[in-house]
């Protein structure tokens, strides 16, 4: 059933590491490059997994659903790999910011198809998820030659730097704060009507958005937001589902895994958008099955209370 | 401001946003549309922008226009009238 749920957020964008720990890794990247930073990362992740059960517990909901047959030991291994994956993605993002974009090769599949979608002139919703190094990946969609608006909220006290901040550069994206006026909905609609690109996360509720629909994901019901589908319906913009994953020590691949078209005037009710949300969730599940340690959701998606 | 325009706005809102158990007379001209007032949310705002264009031929082009216009029936009516007179 589609419903408007009152979701007390049980996740945070804030890093678990202290500021000095971040600085330490940035220094390692500068002095020793990726290998040195990765080497320390193995130890740090090991520390968190062995001595910080609270951090291990954050991996548990996803691991339990992605690897339902795994025993305690294998769940520990999967949690380690998942956390290591996130650590690498964050280091890769910092690497791009500190040592330059040429240090990371990001291949984009289906470039022509993406250019074709933008050329339709109705705007484009780039729907991503917490997969791979999504920020660094989005930086590579500059070949689309349209402004990219990103729905993003940064919490007070968040010390994690975006890649462009390492060089003191301006954001290549135009940020829309989901906690702002009307959740940024009108700003997003305006951008789409101008033919611009709006990037949203399809796998997480943000800001004051209470519009979600429950869809089966990895064997359990999960609430996914449907506001972006409503925006696509109102503007006529196609939705490009764009995922990425790490393919090697210094490389990522961005893939256009689905193009979802939501007919105009779909109305207001969540049920209207179920087929489109389900299409995204199917794509996400397929991707997560193929790249299990590239999905970074450290909170309980399946918990109906939150 | 035209009372007729405000009445039509209320009727459009009720019909198109499926506002149940409410009549145009119960919507105060100066009540906030979002949050505690009429209780609309961000998705309704998207719908509202589309409806204004569809029914009144007026486009909310950006947030500079949108923020003051989307406050109440009064502000919406004023916005539409101002656009029509341009």
From TrEMBL, chain A:
Question: What biological-process GO terms show up in the record?
Answer: glycolipid biosynthetic process
* Cell compartments where the protein resides: Cell inner membrane
Q: Which UniProt keywords apply?
A: Acyltransferase, Cell inner membrane, Cell membrane, Membrane, Transferase, Transmembrane, Transmembrane helix
Pfam families, A to Z: Lip_A_acyltrans
Q: What is its main location?
A: membrane
Gene Ontology cellular component list: plasma membrane
Q: Which residues cross the membrane?
A: 35-51
Q: Is Transmembrane tagged as a keyword?
A: yes
Could you give a GO molecular-function term held by this entry? acyltransferase activity
Q: What is this protein called?
A: Lipid A biosynthesis acyltransferase
Provide the species name.
Geothermobacter hydrogeniphilus
Automatic annotation (TrEMBL), chain B:
- Which PROSITE patterns did the record assign? CARRIER, PHOSPHOPANTETHEINE
SUPFAM superfamilies for this protein: ACP-like (SSF47336)
Q: Which Gene3D superfamilies match?
A: ACP-like
User: Where does the record place the Carrier domain?
Assistant: 3-84
InterPro entries with a match to the protein in the record: ACP-like_sf (IPR036736), PP-bd_ACP (IPR009081), Ppantetheine_attach_site (IPR006162)
Reply yes or no: does the keyword Phosphoprotein apply: yes
Q: Which UniProt keywords apply?
A: Phosphopantetheine, Phosphoprotein
Q: What is this protein called?
A: Acyl carrier protein
Supply the source organism for this entry.
Geothermobacter hydrogeniphilus
């Amino acid at each position: 059933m589609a419903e408007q749920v009152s979701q007390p957020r049980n996740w945070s964008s804030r890093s678990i590491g202290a500021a000095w720990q971040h600085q330490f890794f940035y220094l390692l990247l500068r002095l020793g490059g990726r290998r040195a930073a990765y080497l320390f990362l193995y130890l740090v992740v090991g520390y968190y997994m062995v001595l910080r059960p609270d951090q291990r517990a954050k991996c548990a909901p996803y691991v339990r659903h992605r690897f339902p047959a795994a025993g305690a030991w294998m769940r520990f291994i999967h949690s380690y790999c998942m956390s290591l994956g996130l650590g690498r993605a964050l280091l890769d993002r910092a690497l791009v910011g500190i040592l330059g974009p040429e240090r990371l090769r990001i291949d984009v599949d289906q470039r022509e198809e993406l250019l074709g979608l933008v050329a339709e002139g109705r705007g484009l919703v780039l729907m991503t998820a917490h997969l791979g190094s999504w920020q660094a990946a989005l930086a590579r969609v500059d070949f689309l030659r349209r402004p990219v608006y990103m729905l993003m909220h940064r919490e007070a006290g968040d010390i994690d730097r975006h890649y462009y901040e390492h060089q003191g550069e301006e954001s290549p994206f135009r940020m829309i704060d989901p906690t702002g006026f009307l959740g940024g909905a009108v700003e997003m609609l305006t951008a789409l009507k101008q033919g611009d690109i709006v990037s949203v996360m399809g796998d997480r509720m943000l800001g004051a958005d209470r519009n979600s629909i429950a869809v089966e994901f990895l064997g359990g019901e999960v609430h996914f937001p449907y506001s972006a589908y409503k925006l696509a319906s109102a503007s006529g913009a196609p939705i490009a589902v764009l995922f990425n994953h790490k393919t090697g020590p210094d490389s990522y691949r961005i893939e256009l895994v689905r193009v979802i078209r939501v007919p105009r005037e779909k109305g207001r009710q969540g049920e209207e958008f179920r087929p489109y949300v389900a299409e995204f969730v199917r794509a996400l599940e397929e991707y997560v099955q193929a790249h299990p340690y590239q999905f970074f959701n450290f909170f309980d998606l399946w918990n109906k209370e939150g | 401001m035209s009372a007729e325009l405000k009445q039509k706005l209320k009727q459009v809102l009720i019909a198109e946003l499926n506002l149940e158990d409410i009549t145009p007379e119960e919507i105060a001209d100066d009540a906030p549309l979002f949050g505690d007032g009429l209780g609309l949310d961000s998705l309704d705002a998207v719908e509202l922008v589309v409806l204004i264009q569809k029914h009144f031929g007026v486009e909310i082009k950006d947030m500079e226009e949108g923020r003051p216009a989307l406050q109440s029936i009064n502000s919406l009516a004023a916005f539409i009238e101002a656009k029509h007179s341009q």
